[in-house]
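Read as chain and fold; for instance:
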Amino acid sequence: MLIYWLMFFIPAGLALRESVRRQLLVDPWRTETFRLTGLWWFIVFTLTALVGWRHEVGGDWFNYLRIFDRAVYLSGGIGWWLDDPGYRLIEYISVQLGWGIYGVNILGAALFSLGVVVFCRHLPRPWLALAVSIPYLVMIVGMGYSRQGIALGLLMIGLVTLGRGQVTKFLIWTVLAATFHKSAVVLIPLAALAASQRRIFVVFWASAVAIISYFVLLQDAVEGFTTNYLEAQYQSQGALIRLLMNALPAAILLWKRRRFETTLPQQKLYFWMAVIGVGLVGLYYLSPSSTAVDRMGLYVLPLQLMVFSYLPEVMGKRRGNNSLWVFLVLAYYAAVEFVWLNFATHASAWIPYQFYPWVWLWQS
């Protein structure tokens, strides 16, 4: 468990010492999307290594291993390429280079980690946002749901661009995310909802992209989704708790909207994400499959990073250091990590953490 706690406490310690980046509260366009300092590129590298070089860690580890074994034999067929082509591409690269499942995970982890860091860097308290991301977004999604984790990382870059009013870039990132996990297309309507200018054009453009994406990427998967999730009525243990974790920051944002110093596109974007976060709790009680609702809730996870990065200034003094509120946020997520590692049903799939280079050296 030590590595998981180090992953949390290092950014948490830095969060207690950081000052709010007030220039982002005034001019969020000041920072370019991929302008990261050397330290933050090191964080991308470290997260990539820890997420990508895990060995037999994650609830779906052996499922993805079987998927990769199939890729070795099926990569020549056109039908194989049509199923999540982005993920198939990194599988193909890993097969050709002889990197095995670890190559797939490293390439996917690089995309996921870059998305997480870019998103955090565009928030007023990036270290606090990074600490918030560790217990669930990084540990569970990044290490457990490989394809959806990659999709979410790419979508987080897209959300940064949409918060700047760059609708076309957001749609590009969303479609790219959907090549790794088709469900990512459900966020395309956010482009229209968050638009503050040329709304008719944006609605038309987003609708066109959504329709094309549906027929190209999603149509064949709808029947399987209906059969595997809704008709089979799959249930996920802890789904309601995870949805409530999204609903909490969503409720805070809806309650204190005027205290969030954001741009108009960001206000619209996060307002609708908050509405979705609260709405999914209601959908949980109406849907025959909690698993389907739980998986949709993954795309609301960035809201946690956003709200809790702003929270010290929202709940505290606008010009104070608000260290008490930072501590309370960190204490909440430390409790989340402690409870999950010690009491979650599937936590054993993550414990102990094994780092593949160490395993390889030990076995050799």
